[in-house]
Amino acid sequence: MNFRTLFLMAVLVASITCSQAQVKLDARLFKNNGEAKVTRENQLVEITWPTGNAQFGKVQFDLSSAAPLFRRISLGTKTESVTVSEGLDPVFLLSIGRRDLVSQNGWNIFFDKVPLKPFKMFPVVLKKDSISVESTGSRTVVRIGKLTADHFTGVLEVTFYNGSPLINIAAVMSTQADATAIVYDAGLVSKVQKWEQLSWINTEDSLMSSAVKYTDSAHNLAVKYRSIAVQGKTGSIAVFPAPHQYFYPLDEAFNLRFIWSGKNYRNSVPEYGIGIRQELQGDQRYVPWFNAPPGTQQRLNFFCLLSRKDNADALNAVKKFTNADRYAAIPGFKTMSSHFHNEFIMKVVLANQPVPDKPEFVEVFKRMGVDIVHLGEFHYTAHPQGPDSLRLNELKALFEQCRRLSGSDFLLLPGEEPNEFFGGHWLQIFPKPVYWVMSRSSSQPFVEQKPGFGKVYHVGDKTEMLKLLQEEQGLAWTAHARTKGSVNTPDAYAHEDFFKSDRFMGAAWKAMPADLSQPRLGKRVLDLMDDMNNWGEKKTVIAEADLFSITRQNEMYAHMNVNYMMLDRLPKYDNGWKALLKTMQQGKFFSTTGEVLIHELKVNGKLSGESVLLNTAGTADVRLKLSWTFPLNFIELISGDGKKVYREKIDLRYTKAYGTEQFKFQSRLKGRKWMRIEVWDAAVNGAFSQTFYLK
Question: Could you read off the pLDDT of 131-143 as tens digits, one per residue?
């Protein structure tokens, strides 16, 4: 070997060494006196954090350009830890399409079919040229390098939560391109082939396992609890998405095989891996994907949960974050979910099909802990305008089945999405079975007695519709406000008598549209709630699911939400459910995705929906009791003066997983006319109250 060759080799080695040495650790925002610790040795940066029960997690980041990012992930005591996994890289695939911002209400559009327009998928590429560590409450956030995927750029964020073996891995990316819609797949790939067994829970709620074969091509799995786990000799790691945020709105809650495992996933990930995924064609109806407005920080993220034991232990720990996909009971409350187009009457009962003693959809709701279900039957399947011979028998069949399927622990309520008279789409509920037809000829009376049915109403216009609601003490509200078939409502009829009536409750909330940059879900209707309050109308907002089929195989929990109604006991069907409607109309409830619960909320001793006299200094004393699963992010007190909306945020990033806390704080509300509360967690699950009216 000559001198010139030796010299060039020395220059090359020096160049590589210099390049790698430029990756400096920025720890200026890290609190050295906190519970977490950070150390560095050459190209290795190690984070140690308490995971609860005198255990500690350790993650070694390898900043060498050719090495896997996660050199070693371990779990154990201060003196003894075991390797849970090693030699791993995070992987993200970003699919980029076009958003229709013209045909409907801009970014609020649902009726979009993104995958039917040109789109392209890009691997997200990480350049490990920087690293910083920041302490944020009880969390440690590590930011690494530069991410690129077509016209998206960003940074990799890895968040560790004190008190839990929970990790969030996020590609935080933005674009300057307008009218962009996205979806993403993500996960972990193994570079050292030390995984031995895969496990998941199938849709029948049974644990399934198989040996890891690194030669297996990638395949997609339909699972329950949206998670998959993999274990080596001394530990397990589970991968799962945010339980609601990851699922953009669809009409159907089909289980679209949201988990993948194997090598060469989508012909874009050569190594063997596991992860979360989206079916790009969705339910093949309207498929809007996620909004990605210019300049917004889109969090393409997933969670990992570590276990020193095995896959079963890791998966059971994941289930706890959603209470095993069940809404927890709270004394003094009953759970209610609304807006389901299951069409059991038209597709089964009146279609000469066998009528099951225990229909699957009822069993699904019961297993989820839903006490009250409000249906939206006859959605373009029946005869709402008559003739009477068909319409009245359809209603009779609905009432009979709701009565049969209700009991001491479950109440199934008839309801429809009439979409007549008022404009846009809306739902209704009466406190008892009411026979009514959505048409009236000039020769027909508004109300009459009919043999076999009793009192029957014929409604011909919005004035008569309001009269029916008033006479029978029913309620109506805007379904999917400001989107779908209600794109201009309730704004377009906010001046109408029926809207101003106390029989028009307000609107319904759902996480639609989806935007991964938002710290909350369902901003569309939360903003509407504030607008209605500033209009001076006392309206309430109920959470709605707006789903069609309900089956055990479906991914129901991800697309569901629930209302906790202030009811001591469940109404009996035969006695009517007037108490429920009173609770709805008076705002005596809160709505939630299920992980954040509001056990108590009082403002100067008053409940939501009530008028509150402010203290002499214009302040109000807020008493709030919360429980949660994922660590919380913030409480926000929203108020208004009739023109502007004001926000007061209380940082809760000091909280840890699985907590209960009684909060007491005072807020300055002089000059304000109303206020309400929202609470959101680290996985963008949340809960919101109804409005308090200030004097």
Answer: 999 999 999 999 9
